[in-house]
Design a protein that fits this description.
By secondary structure, the chain is an alpha+beta fold. Helices cover 35% and strands 22% of the residues. A six-stranded mixed β-sheet has the order 1-5-6-4-3-2, covered by helices on one side. A four-stranded antiparallel β-sheet has the order 12-19-14-17.
């Protein structure tokens, strides 16, 4: 049987002064406390007294603190101190993270869903979480409990991954190198050894293998799948997998495909939807192998200009007038717009454009003034692609392709003019 060793120092009873309670779990209390020694506000997690299995609870609390003490990254709230208070109860003091959880930001609750984030915001949050996980994975640690409740958003753009109590050391080599000659075999064993048949985590966000595979056989790929579920929630407001009970939910995660992302949110670009689909592959061998690969594809996606801002129009609102400078093209995301041209018999409608169609591209490619007026027929959302971004994209392709695109644009512009000038034909 595991025997708990007191490794923390005995803290002076008046160093950490409890100010208020922040939360409570089955075995521990978390409080907002004042550190009298360093004059700062911290969070203190302390084991409860009179627990049914005190040795197991002490081991669990120590295991939770060890990965956080080992990992030093801006996306992980650091532990400041580990100590023991009477009667032989371990505690640790850590950075108090002010802000709100991603669950609160989304208004998300399992079974009830939440709001959808703008694509650019969701991608930014996944990049933050992914960078933290890539760092942890490089050091042999997997989180295994990724969910909106465990992502904290600070008031100055901080994104922190919390609650490493379910984390596992899958590769002890970096940890041993980190500890050097300062640690005993028991120190490493505390993070490596665990019941081989233990399954743990939050069911809605588990990977397929996490639902049926012992923890000692899981890999960083499990965190990639769970991150994709988290990302799916940010982009759609709902979970990709459902079940009437836990057993049905876990079976769905193992056996069912997630619904097409763009059917739930048409604003998600195809390239981004493909990244999410690869993260959600059931087969580990076809999923991303490392978070570095995910981050590389996300950055390529961002650099490709698919994260352009959006503009909203009300019915009757004019997007641009004929003769205006053409500084941007627009992709219709939702709604409809009409294209109008002044002709001999007054204003004529040239076209009605629906979601997926582009308007205004001729002017930014030819550098000519707008050749028509565009007005919203319904409440409309458009993605804005400014001239600088489009020209930057053209610079990525061979010069002859860019010349061909510009030439075609000029020819289409001339064709439009001829069609408008052509006399009306009778029936």
């Amino acid at each position: 049987m595991f025997q708990f060793k007191r490794r923390g120092h005995a803290a002076p009873t008046d160093r950490y002064v409890v100010l208020s309670r922040l939360g409570e779990g089955g075995a521990a209390l978390v409080s907002r406390s004042f550190d009298r020694s360093l004059c700062r506000i911290v969070a203190v997690k302390a084991l409860k007294e009179n627990l049914a299995a005190p040795d197991l609870a002490r081991r669990t609390l120590t295991r939770e603190g060890r990965p956080v003490g080992y990992l030093d990254h801006p996306g992980i709230a650091p532990i400041y101190d580990h100590y023991v208070k009477a009667p032989d109860l371990p505690c640790y003091a850590m950075k108090l993270v002010e802000g709100k959880t991603l669950s609160d930001h989304l208004g998300f609750r399992p079974g009830k869903g939440g709001r959808t984030l703008p694509v650019a915001e969701a991608v930014g949050l996944l990049l933050h979480v992914g960078q933290t996980l890539a760092y942890a994975h490089d050091r042999g640690v997997i989180h295994l409990d990724l969910k909106p409740d465990n992502v904290m958003l600070g008031p100055y753009g901080e994104v922190l991954l919390m609650d490493w109590g379910n984390a596992r050391l899958v590769d002890p080599v970096p940890y041993r190198a980190h500890l050097g000659a300062n640690a005993t075999p028991e120190d490493v064993a505390l993070l490596v050894e665990e019941p081989p048949d233990l399954l743990s985590g939050t069911p809605e966000f588990m990977s397929p293998e996490q639902t049926c595979t012992p923890r000692d056989r899981l890999s960083p790929s499990s965190d990639i799948f769970s991150s994709a579920t988290l990302f799916f929630v940010m982009l759609t407001g709902t979970l990709p997998f459902h079940g009437k009970n836990v057993e049905a939910l876990l079976a769905s995660i193992r056996e069912s495909d997630a619904p097409p992302l763009r059917e739930l949110n048409p604003e998600v670009p195809p390239r981004l939807a493909a990244i999410v689909a690869k993260m959600l592959e059931k087969d580990v061998s076809t999923r991303y192998a490392t978070f570095h690969e995910v981050l590389e594809d996300l950055r390529t996606y961002q650099e490709a200009g698919e994260g352009f801002p959006v503009q909203h129009l009300q019915p009757g609102e004019v997007l641009f007038q004929e003769g205006d400078d053409g500084h941007a093209a627009y992709l219709v995301v939702t709604g409809q717009v009409e294209v109008l041209k002044a002709g001999p018999d007054g204003e004529q409608r040239l076209a009605v454009l629906a979601p997926g169609e582009v308007v205004g591209e001729l002017a930014i490619l030819t550098r000519e003034p707008r050749s028509a007026t565009v007005r919203a027929l319904t409440e409309t959302t458009l993605r804005v692609m400014d001239r600088t971004a489009v020209e930057r994209e053209l610079e990525k392709i061979p010069p002859w392709v860019g010349t061909m695109v510009s030439t075609l644009a000029e020819r289409f512009l001339g064709l439009n003019e001829k069609l408008v000038r052509r006399p009306q034909e009778g029936p």
